[in-house]
Amino acid sequence: HGTGTLAGDPIELAAASSVFAPSRSAQNPLIVGSIKSNIGHSENAAGISGLIKAIMAVETGTIPGNPTFIDPNPKIDFVGLKVKATRTAIPWPSNLASRIASVNSFGYGGSNAHVVIQDGASFVGKANKIYGSSFTASTSFLDDDDEQVASSPQLLVFSANDEESMKMYVKVLQAHLINPRVNIRPEDLAHTLLRRSRLFNRGFLVSKSTTLDYGSLVVGKKNVDAPRIGFVFTGQGAQGIRAR
């Protein structure tokens, strides 16, 4: 986050160092940065901006620099804390099993948050190099009796214009998937369902296989009450009753 104050930055970095840097060597410091150095003070959007930055860094393997980091705060012992800030982008260390980043967000009104981001490559195996439609021919790389099972449970999401349509859709899909000629990975099924249109009535199943248990379908409840109107203010004293 980077509060950008002489008093706040040393406290924030000392806290981060006490959690993430004790076991680090001087040659492997904790890399730190601030979203404010990249896009400025974005007020209410600062938290989500920092989260987006962290996700992009984890995905691309590039740690963004801090262009405005010119004169280090003299109250911060970078060497002793084993933390490092850089003005230019640097590649993510390649000797790590996975990429992990964390984001601090300190609200003006005292709402503090911390989120940890880890890359998905360490959880997802290599993609199957054989592709085909769900109706793969009987000469497929799978025998007709083989059922593909995922290494971890998959979230299968469904949506429709009304609840009855969604339930019927799940039943039709359930019947389709038990066809012995249908060979599809649970991971691919979950991905395809996730990319479909998101309609008003929604439900989900959790399964490691493509044999769907209709009885486990969880259907979301539709809110019948009118949504309440909320306001977001900058926190700079502009929230007067006649503010426009």
UniProtKB/TrEMBL annotation:
It comes from the Eukaryota. One of its GO terms (molecular function) is fatty acid synthase activity. SUPFAM superfamilies: Thiolase-like. Residues 1-119 form the Ketosynthase family 3 (KS3) domain. InterPro entries: Ac_transferase_dom_sf (IPR001227), Ketoacyl_synth_C (IPR014031), PKS_assoc (IPR032821), PKS_Beta-ketoAc_synthase_dom (IPR020841), PKS_NRPS_Biosynth_Enz (IPR050091), Thiolase-like (IPR016039). Keywords: Phosphopantetheine, Phosphoprotein. GO terms for biological process: fatty acid biosynthetic process; secondary metabolite biosynthetic process. Pfam families: KAsynt_C_assoc, Ketoacyl-synt_C. The keyword Cell inner membrane does not apply. The keyword Phosphoprotein applies. This is Polyketide synthase. It comes from Beauveria sp. BCC1825. The lineage of its organism: Eukaryota, Fungi, Dikarya, Ascomycota, Pezizomycotina.
